[in-house]
Amino acid sequence: MKKLAVVAIGGNAINRPGEKPTAENMFKNIKVTASYLADMIELGYRIIITHGNGPQVGNLLVQQDIAKDTIPPFPMDVLGAMTQGYLGYMISQELKNVLNERKIDKEIATVVTQIVVNKDDPGFKNPTKPVGPFYSEEEAKKIMEEKGWIFKEDAGRGWRRVVPSPIPLDVIEKRTIKDLVENDVIVVAGGGGGIPVIIDEKGEIKGVEAVIDKDRASALIAKELDADEFIILTAVEKVYLNFNKPDQKPLDTITVKEAEKYMNEGHFAKGSMLPKIEACISFVTSTNRPALITDMEKLKDALEGKTGTRIIP
């Protein structure tokens, strides 16, 4: 049977830094992303595609705040579902178009995915997940005073609003996703880290105000679906030590033990590379199978072992 890979695409695959977050720009960027995913399919992979939604949820939060006196705001879990739906639509449409151009007959389905979290997760008391646009420090502090939102500096790129980010524990729709994959359907799932939900004392599922980290949720989906490989596509070709410093050093293949050592030494930024490394460690440790981090433009070369950073047991 063909290898199954969970492929987590980053925010730059949907919105480029500095460009307006219009639907037109998003379709344009996703079309480019789809061409790289199609390369994987041509190489014989079965794939589950996951994606971020931090900027999109953040933009909806801003829109709701502006219109709150006219239309009541929706809770964050509903916004997560909304962005899963429209981003899944965009990804499945553009990928289908690319596959049709290449005469590849494949079905694609988007599964609006709920991810179980613990209602007592400490993440609810310490918001860390960046959402929405970047602001200057001055703008961020002004909004904090006006609205009571929490902002933090994000890996040297500016200031962003942060919201709770609990640890993902289970995937409600995992059997549905598995059935689709076993029928050779390309699946878009776990968008934006999934919709965070809790299961209460009565066994009822209820949404909560949070955004789950996309890479952690993607690693969970990869484990639950017994994937052969977990791949994170981001804005850099490889993971680096001393990133953006004169003595930065690229990493080719590292063990889990080495990854943990570098992580503990503080080499990976909390708002960007750290959760990716943590997600890869989680997948590799649980499955004894490899994880890969690379730029989507280098994906084909990385799959052939020519570039990227591979994390192994």
Automatic annotation (TrEMBL):
<dbReference type="InterPro" id="IPR003964">
    <property type="entry name" value="Carb_kinase"/>
</dbReference>
<dbReference type="Pfam" id="PF00696">
    <property type="entry name" value="AA_kinase"/>
</dbReference>
<dbReference type="GO" id="GO:0008804">
    <property type="term" value="F:carbamate kinase activity"/>
</dbReference>
<feature type="domain" description="Aspartate/glutamate/uridylate kinase">
    <location>
        <begin position="3"/>
        <end position="295"/>
    </location>
</feature>
<dbReference type="InterPro" id="IPR001048">
    <property type="entry name" value="Asp/Glu/Uridylate_kinase"/>
</dbReference>
<protein>
    <recommendedName>
        <fullName>Carbamate kinase</fullName>
    </recommendedName>
</protein>
<keyword id="KW-0808">Transferase</keyword>
<keyword id="KW-0418">Kinase</keyword>
<comment type="similarity">
    <text>Belongs to the carbamate kinase family.</text>
</comment>
<dbReference type="GO" id="GO:0019546">
    <property type="term" value="P:L-arginine deiminase pathway"/>
</dbReference>
<dbReference type="GO" id="GO:0005829">
    <property type="term" value="C:cytosol"/>
</dbReference>
<dbReference type="InterPro" id="IPR036393">
    <property type="entry name" value="AceGlu_kinase-like_sf"/>
</dbReference>
